[in-house]
């Protein structure tokens, strides 16, 4: 990892510390555009906002999808204090952002937070294929 990448990761870690000082979970992220300029920064505000989705990575993915053209998004890198969770990973993929660089891995976070990890959500399906597929057919 080069010095610039480490500096951006240190900024993400500083944003995580800011979140913690504010009483929120300790996570921070930023977007760096194709020219190396910081485009946007966020920190976790899930407690302050009473919003389980207020992760910095998700907020930045939304920002990127609204504000960046596809070419710029693809050339933009998200630097984040921790590897994005599955919710944020999905949003990042949909936003078109080209790359994520993280400090702590999800595994390393779990080791710091015993008992954590992603619960398995019971799901049933598929079902009612003819009816459900009719709603989607021809849309794409
Ligand atoms: Zn997340």
TrEMBL record:
InterPro entries named among the record's database cross-references: CMP_dCMP_dom, Cytidine_deaminase-like
Q: Which PROSITE patterns match?
A: CYT_DCMP_DEAMINASES_2
Which domain of life does this protein belong to?
Bacteria
Q: Which residues form the CMP/dCMP-type deaminase domain?
A: 3-120
CDD domains reported for this sequence = nucleoside_deaminase
In the record, what terms sit under GO molecular function? catalytic activity
* Stated name of the protein: tRNA-specific adenosine deaminase
Protein species of origin: Phytohabitans suffuscus
């Amino acid at each position: 990892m080069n010095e610039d990448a480490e500096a951006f990761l240190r900024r993400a870690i500083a944003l995580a510390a800011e979140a913690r000082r504010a009483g929120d979970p300790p996570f921070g992220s930023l977007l760096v555009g194709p020219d190396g300029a910081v485009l946007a920064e966020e920190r976790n505000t899930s407690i302050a906002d009473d919003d389980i989705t207020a992760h910095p990575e998700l907020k930045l993915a939304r920002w990127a999808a609204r504000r960046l053209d596809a070419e710029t998004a693809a050339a933009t890198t998200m630097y984040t204090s921790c590897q994005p969770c599955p919710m944020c990973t999905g949003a990042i993929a949909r936003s078109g952002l080209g790359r994520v660089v993280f400090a702590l891995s999800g595994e390393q976070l779990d080791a710091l937070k015993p008992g954590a990890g992603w619960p398995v959500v019971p799901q049933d399906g598929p079902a009612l294929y003819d009816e459900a597929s009719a709603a989607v057919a021809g849309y794409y």
